[in-house]
Amino acid sequence: MFSSRLNASAEVNRITRRLRELRAAGRPILDLTESNPTRAGIRYPGEEIARLLSDPRALTYEPEPAGLPAAREAVAAYYAERGERVDPARVLLTASTSEGYAYLFKLLADPGDEVLVPRPSYPLFDFLAELDSVRVTHYPLVYEGGWRIDFDALRHALTPRTRAIVVVNPNNPTGSFLKQDELDELIRICRDRDLAVVSDEVFSDYAFDDDSRRVRTLSQTDNVLTFSMSGLSKVVGLPQLKLGWMVLSGPDSVRREAFERLEFIADTYLSVSTPVQWAAAGLLALRQGIQGQIQRRVRRNLEHLRATFRAESAVRVLNVEGGWYATLQVPRTRSEEDWALTLLDGHGVLVQPGFFYDFETEAFLVVSLLTPEAIFSEAIVNVGRFGL
């Protein structure tokens, strides 16, 4: 009766089951998985946000498939403040980056075609692609004191049905940025194979240190068709205000055709709400205050993590360049699932096992640096007491 695109299992994993049991029993939980800034103690200028969302212009419905010009100009101004020139005519708005992926899969791939996505990375890609009857093939990131693309494996993963390569910059959860030499190689491969690049840049404002090798955005790429994606969810820490965008770049002719086709797709849905579009410029203007809180939080938690688990520890804090997450490599004396369950039962500390993000080997645990500092500190002390 139902579509084969909906193959996701409704079965609850052991960690979620145990967490529900402990919470039902009233057990306090130190949650190191919190990634929702609106629930992480970030202070928002509520009155100003409410004022922006009450713009009377929002009472008039003006359907624009690519988004209202004022909102697209606001996105272009955001890039200009970062030192990156983006023509508003290259900006297309979506309700979220997830919807942006759905648009791009429809644009680039026929049913059964393939897109390459990094591993480890956020597991949402598989579900989004499956809903559009597109296959996901993975290419590995390897860790050698820092993360890099394994280009030999990437080339091996290419097939005649590959249509695009996805990069997450910085990656979630590894926090690794694409480097200039990697981008050069990626462009060579895509140009030779006539492939598009999809660059997910939602965390690009959250870099920890300067690095001249780092690529902050692919919005200036002119050699191959490229889609650079971001949105209010991370840029302003407002995931409930559904506004994402993509910036198209590449050779003029193919970029213009891609934009026209995307407008047709967007016109079918017209999903971006009018109030958030009129509020976009004002909301983006608030980002410094909100980002500043998030940046201070994640930096302090990362410093605490590194100070707790030094070189002599059995836990290794892997190098992270940006984003909201950190990865811990733990002894392979038990599985990641068992580590997570043991920490949950033994000390009430909730972490994510690496297999949630498709780490290819064991044993890794992922923690959110967005966690309120007091909770983060107590939880990390408890992890240390566990004998790691």
**How is the main sheet built?**
8 strands, mixed
Could you name the CATH class of the largest domain? Alpha Beta
**What fraction of residues sit in β-strands?**
15-25%
Tell me the number of strands: 14
Mean pLDDT reading = 95
Q: Can you tell me the overall shape?
A: globular
Helix/strand class: alpha/beta
Stated plainly, the CATH topology of the largest domain is called Aspartate Aminotransferase, domain 2
Strands in their spatial order, largest beta sheet = 2-9-8-7-6-3-4-5
Report the C-alpha radius of gyration, rounded: 21 Å
Helix-strand topology string: HEHHEHEHEEHEHEEHEHHHEEHEEEH
Notable traits:
388 residues; alpha/beta; Aspartate Aminotransferase, domain 1; Aspartate Aminotransferase, domain 2; 2 domains; eight-stranded mixed β-sheet; four-stranded antiparallel β-sheet; 13 helices; 14 strands; 39% helix; 16% strand; globular
Helix-strand layout with pairing:
Elements: H1 14-24, E1 30-31, H2 46-52, H3 69-81, E2 91-94, H4 97-108, E3 114-119, H5 124-131, E4 135-143, E5 147-149, H6 151-157, E6 162-168, H7 180-193, E7 196-200, E8 226-231, H8 232-235, E9 244-249, H9 252-269, H10 274-285, H11 287-308, E10 316-317, E11 325-329, H12 336-347, E12 349-350, E13 352-353, E14 364-368, H13 373-385
Parallel strand pairs: 1-12, 3-4, 3-6, 6-7, 7-8
Antiparallel strand pairs: 2-9, 4-5, 8-9, 10-11, 11-14, 13-14
Helix pairs in contact: 1-12, 3-10, 4-5, 4-9, 11-13
